[in-house]
TrEMBL record, chain A:
This is Replication factor C subunit 2. One of its GO terms (biological process) is DNA replication checkpoint signaling. SUPFAM superfamilies: P-loop containing nucleoside triphosphate hydrolases, post-AAA+ oligomerization domain-like. Its main location: nucleus. Pfam families: AAA, RCF1-5-like_lid, Rep_fac_C. It is found in: Nucleus. GO terms for molecular function: ATP binding; ATP hydrolysis activity; DNA binding; DNA clamp loader activity. GO terms for cellular component: DNA replication factor C complex; Elg1 RFC-like complex; nucleus. Residues 1-23 are annotated as: Disordered. Keywords: ATP-binding, DNA replication, DNA-binding, Hydrolase, Nucleotide-binding, Nucleus. Residues 1-14 have a biased composition (Polar residues). Belongs to the activator 1 small subunits family.
TrEMBL record, chain B:
One of its GO terms (molecular function) is DNA clamp loader activity. Pfam families: DNA_pol3_delta2, RCF1-5-like_lid, RFC_C. This is Replication factor C subunit 5. Keywords: DNA replication, Hydrolase, Nucleus. It comes from Suillus placidus. It comes from the Eukaryota. GO terms for biological process: DNA repair; DNA strand elongation involved in DNA replication. GO terms for cellular component: Ctf18 RFC-like complex; DNA replication factor C complex; Elg1 RFC-like complex; Rad17 RFC-like complex. The keyword Nucleus applies. CDD domains: AAA.
Length: 372, 356
């Protein structure tokens, strides 16, 4: 007897992750669509479909970490309950082989098995269990145009017994004939209030003390991507709890984890470019002209930043904010800087050399603010 | 006889000389049960790879050092066979996606699926997961990165991924948001000197302060380069005294020659001469971006302040073109022509100004 028990527990533990070691993003993935923070409009509409159980084909789009995958999974779970979830919901994502022939085969064989409704689930609840299956194509924008074209025909063929939910970051990467067949739901970056309350909820559930200042740093560094802010929080908590004795999480920890360049370094760079920083003004009461040192000074600063390992895109985005939001820099000069930032962003996306472009932006700004 | 760089490569996190707080973090993470996916990034020669292997050792003990190399065959969607060497131990596996060329997605997908679905067989293993180290992660194609996203979430129970990259800029946001980012900055000169002195001590010889200073300064934060230079210097002049001449690598000297040619004369004949040299460098497998940067940096050292910014501007411009285009030499050459023309204009205006 004992033998069997031991065996059964060991197999059970094989397939499930100990919740204590689960990434928080999974642990705190919304279970029902009511758990989904923000996205009020989407949630309201979906709640209605939950009542009518009449689901259209859907297209979820929006930036990462805004709840797209979570929402469709929660919705499907609420429609079918735990028992039927597996045979009614097919989730395909970019990690799976998605040559169109494979997708077609998978969908074909999945759609073929006739759904059987079952009123009361093992957890005692009653689920609507409408007579169709849901096929989730997550990260659909990484499918080729051809595959999307073929998908359109598949959708038509199985329209009676399946509903598709396409999930993507960029709606423009979905071909028009496919997109036009779906009801579109836009997911927006999470506002700071929603982010803050979700993070505080997680922190208290995990029994960790989090300073309001830490929360606001998390909000600043994650730009409305809740997955990112939750990951940062978990990383910071791991680091702080694993030191002996445990230390509280500081805003600086979050910045380091997020790869943010320290404000002091950015301000230093800005000064080298010939722009005075707010702090300088506070000290002197009057805006003072930063020291100008020319090409070599700029080049040296850039090399220093690269040596510290900060990424060019991060550096430029912080530099951008400092300059564009600068209280006294004339608009004309800001405009010139903005052009340089835009060009650099494009170049970096094309895979251009990081050092060359940080230098280029630096030199362009330097020129814009010195020669007027 | 292995090189000093390899021979004295630290094996454990405690052996690492600089960034102590980073080592301490890694140590405590390795001890905790919820080791996350990680992304190590920083300039080359800063010690990312070393830090990763020390972390692995901390995670699994010396067993990770027993490496075997397997040749594996993957089948591309177009049914082409790809043979790829894979370095692995019982606890981890290492891949360099650039070896798979355009098919990195297939290789990543197959390997990760396989690892995700197999259990750790070694019952004495300290952790139930296996680690997949992906080198040069910034060269992963978009496709391959997309393939990683959900896999990283789904198979957390028996796999962890460690990515190693020079920069995070080329990684898509969904990947970054699934990793704990570990920035490995280049060591500063004092830290570099410390490592050099450590090696000298191990080999029981005296390293004069000036020599170590000079090496550290010369190698701009690249520890690997510093150790290679150090070993070469020691061969040349065993007592490392007096004024040391740190020999530049041949390609660098050659690049400087190219720069000098550009500054000395601007003519069609000179362009041809420069072009031949650029070809020569490329046939020796020096990456075109490195050629362009090295030449440009030397040129700006030798021209008037008023021209420097423009020269670097065009370097950035043509380097980007080079990435997008096919024929690297066209863009290198275009830059050379541009610089020569700038130079000529500048000198001409200068002369005219004299007459006014
Ligand atoms: N609107 C939201 N409400 C609650 N949690 C969210 C929300 N958006 C994201 N999350 C958290 O972030 C994680 C990732 O969200 P996910 O739905 O996978 O994002 P994506 O939009 O990229 O598909 C979830 O596990 C959850 O913890
Ligand atoms: Mg998603």
């Amino acid at each position: 007897m004992a033998f069997f028990q031991a065996k059964s527990t060991s197999t059970a533990s094989k397939h499930s992750v100990d919740p204590a070691h689960q990434p928080w993003v999974e642990k705190y993935r919304p279970k029902t669509i009511d758990d989904v923070s923000a996205q009020e409009h989407t949630v309201a509409v979906l709640k209605k479909t939950l009542v009518s159980t009449n689901l259209p084909h859907m297209l979820f789009y929006g930036p990462p970490g805004t709840g797209k995958t979570s929402t469709i999974l929660a919705l499907a779970r609420q429609l079918f309950g735990p028992d039927n979830f597996r045979n009614r919901v097919l989730e395909l994502n970019a990690s799976d082989e998605r040559g169109i022939s494979i997708v077609r085969e998978k969908i074909k064989s999945f759609a073929r098995q006739t759904p059987r409704a079952q009123a009361v689930a093992s957890d005692g609840n009653v689920y609507p269990c409408p007579p169709y299956k849901i096929i989730i194509l997550d990260e659909a924008d990484s499918m080729t145009q051809d595959a999307q074209g073929a998908l359109r025909r598949i959708m038509e063929t199985y329209a009676r017994i399946t509903r598709f939910c396409l999930v993507c970051n960029y709606v423009t990467r979905i071909i028009e004939p496919l997109a036009s067949r779906c009801s579109k739901f836009r997911f927006t970056p999470l506002d700071s209030t929603s982010t803050s309350s979700r993070l505080s909820y997680i922190a208290s559930a995990e029994n960790i003390d989090v300073d309001p200042e830490v929360i606001s740093t998390l909000i600043e560094t994650s730009g409305g991507d809740l997955r990112r802010s939750i990951t940062y929080l978990q990383s910071a908590s791991r680091l702080s709890s694993s030191t002996n004795p445990p230390v509280p999480i500081t805003p600086h920890d979050i910045q380091e984890i997020a790869g943010v360049v320290p404000t002091a370094s950015i301000n230093d760079f800005v000064r080298t470019l010939g722009i005075s920083v707010i702090e300088d003004m506070d000290v002197d009461g009057l805006p003072t002209k930063g020291k100008l040192k020319g090409f070599n000074a700029v080049q040296k600063k850039v090399k220093g930043i690269m040596r510290e390992g900060y990424s060019a895109s991060q550096t430029l985005s912080q530099l951008h904010d400092t300059i564009i939001l600068h209280p006294t820099l004339p608009a004309r000069q800001k405009a010139k800087c903005a052009l340089a930032f835009a060009e650099a962003d494009k170049a970096l996306c094309d895979g251009a050399d990081e050092e060359l472009w940080v230098l280029e932006v630096g030199l362009r700004i330097h020129k814009a603010v010195t020669i007027s | 006889m292995s090189l000093w760089v390899d021979k004295f490569r630290p094996k454990t996190l405690d052996d690492l000389h600089y960034h102590q707080s980073l080592s301490a973090r890694l140590k405590s993470l390795a001890a905790s049960a919820d080791f996350p996916h990680m992304l190590f990034y920083g300039p080359s020669g800063a010690g990312k790879k070393t830090r990763i292997s020390c972390t692995l050792r901390q995670l699994f003990g010396s067993g990770v050092e027993k490496l075997k190399i397997d040749q594996r065959v993957f089948i591309s969607p177009s049914k082409r066979k790809l043979e790829i060497n894979i370095v692995q131990s019982n606890f981890h596996i290492e891949i360099t996606p650039s070896e798979a060329g355009n098919y990195d997605r297939v290789v990543i997908q197959d390997l990760l699926k396989e690892i995700a679905q197999t259990q750790q067989v070694d019952l004495n293993a300290k952790h139930r997961f296996k680690v997949v180290v992906i080198n040069e992660a910034d060269s992963l194609s978009r496709d391959a990165q997309a393939a990683l996203r959900r896999t990283m979430e789904k198979y957390m129970s028996n796999m962890r991924i460690i990515l190693c990259a020079n920069s995070t800029s080329r990684l898509i946001a969904p990947i970054k948001s699934r990793c704990l980012l570990m920035r490995v900055a280049a060591p500063n000169p004092e830290e570099m000197q410390m490592v050099l002195e450590h090696v000298a001590k191990k080999l029981k010889f005296d390293l004069p302060e000036e020599a170590s200073q000079q090496i550290a300064e010369d190698c701009g934060g690249n520890m690997r380069k510093a150790l290679l230079v150090f070993e070469a210097l020691k061969m040349q002049s065993p007592d490392l005294s007096g004024s040391l001449k740190i020999a530049k690598p041949d390609w660098e000297t050659y690049c400087h020659k190219v720069a000098d040619l550009i500054v000395q004369e601007q003519s069609p004949a000179r362009i041809l001469e420069v072009r031949a040299k650029l070809y020569e460098l490329m046939t020796h497998c020096i990456p075109p971006t490195i050629i362009l940067k090295t030449v440009a940096e030397r040129v700006v050292e030798r021209v008037d302040e008023a021209m420097k910014a423009d020269i670097m501007h065009w370097a950035a411009f043509y380097e980007t073109r080079m990435r997008l285009g096919n024929k690297k030499i066209y863009h290198l050459e275009a830059w050379v022509v541009k610089v020569m023309s700038l130079y000529k204009h500048f000198m001409y205006n200068f002369d005219m100004a004299d007459f006014e």
